[in-house]
Amino acid sequence: MPELPEVETTCRGIKPHICDQKISAITAREARLRWPFELPPSLIGQPIIDVRRRAKYILIQIPEGQIIIHLGMSGSLRLVNPDVPPKRHDHIDVQLSSGLVLRYNDPRRFGSFHFQPTGDETHWLLRDLGVEPLGNEFSGDYLFRLSRRRRVAVKIFIMNANIVVGVGNIYAAEALFTAGIRPGTQAHRVTRKAYDRLAEAIRAILSRAIDMGGTTLRDFVNSDGQPGYFKQSLKVYGREGLPCRNCGATLRKQNLGQRSTVFCPQCQRYSGWR
Predict the structure, then answer these.
(1) Strand, coil or helix: what is 37?
(2) What is the value of pTM for the model shown?
(3) Which of 26, 55, 109, 199 is most buried (most C-beta within 10 Å)?
(4) Which domains does the chain carry?
């Protein structure tokens, strides 16, 4: 699944090419996505003002409101010339006044396109989202305060989008490794000092992943069709049974909340209240 760095990389990739362009046409070859495709015809002729990210959603701002795009499990956006024939799983085209086409590909069809008119209440997909991990509201103190009565594993806690957005499975595992915290430690047992380390690790790892273009897991490609390179820097994710890059100990796997996580038994000794 494309995570926050992949979505941010996509936003940065498409923004210079679609801002200040008008929407010339919208073609939906397959409207049966996770939710039915819902871009109204009134968007034709509207100029694109801005492109930004909120959590894992791409928000394309126009005068009448905003287009909300989620890439789902396997979705990607890329810019192509209008004479490039659509490939298999190329479901949506947004043609621009420049002649370029913003093309959406999604083999699993688990992404979605929505429209939120200006003046409406916050869209239901965005309403209950937590803070941004790269924003000023996010800190170790924030995590500490919200975790006091949480008895779930700390990895599940930081992956809760109502707490903090965009910390998916890959980056949660990597941040916990960097902070030296066992993934299964109950969230309420983690001290303020340990949460300070964890918040700093989340910020640093996500920022580095954005700079490197994401992780390139299976289906993700950048908006220009080029892969990201952060996968080459992964310390624990997907490395069960291999030696730790820091200490040489054999990395172990643990199942938490129907997901597997990999950790180092030596480097991640912290399990709370010290």
Answers:
(1) coil
(2) 0.86
(3) 199
(4) 4-117 (3.20.190.10), 140-263 (1.10.8.50)
